[in-house]
User: What shape does this take?
Amino acid sequence: MSEHLRTALRLAAAGVPVLPLRAGKAPFGNCHCCAGNACGGRPNMKTAGPCRCPGVCHAWAAATTDPDVLTSPAWSAAWRRAVTVAYHPGAAGLTVVDLDDAAALDWARATLPTTRTVPTTRGEHWIYRGTMASHNGVRPGVDIKSAMSYVRYLGPGTGPLTGLPDAVRALAVKEPPATRPAPRPVSLSTGSGDERCPHRTPVFLERGIAMAEQRITQATTAVHATVYGAFLAVLSRHGRCGCLTDTHVGRLFAAAQAKGESGRHCAAAWANARAALGM
Assistant: This one.
């Protein structure tokens, strides 16, 4: 039995759902039986099922506390290739604040209540008792890992667990659409002083925004790429006539943030789409 599997079994016995990670700290890919999440492997935020495929897939959703699953032949190949063990904090009733550099650590020490800490390569994991939605990039060098996420197991850590504070929950509160950073739309003059939208009707724009929102909302994989593609499509149609408003952009950002994108990632995707179109 490998050392990683022994660690996984010990954590599972303590009620912490675990999974193996391959090189690059990445989860094992979808098995051929449910590629593209064909088996519907998108369980609710507090559990680690109902994926029942024969292989190790769906990343955090594959995490389990069942020793029979962890030692099954189907998982054996994964454990042989694993480079480390990960766990699903949300299913264990935990939230991990991942502090990725010295500046983030200084901020946490000045802002957050002390709790159990685990050293990482570049910073620390601060572990709190309680669950919430996971969010990346809530501030520079700070990610929140809890529901529908996985975290490398780097040891038991030091210090007692503290209840999840409001200060951490507040990090995930989305800004109102009007205040989200968004580049201003580009207006191109027709040369005749006629600044009317060439589409002639606001219905065309409304349909385009609604279709982009739906495309983002229905994404089950490759959310980053889907958001960028939707932004690119809207800008290519409506970005040069001056008809886009902050309200329209705010709707797109809200749809993306509902899928887990941060405001910073939305602004970056929007800027990249504008750059790709030469705006």
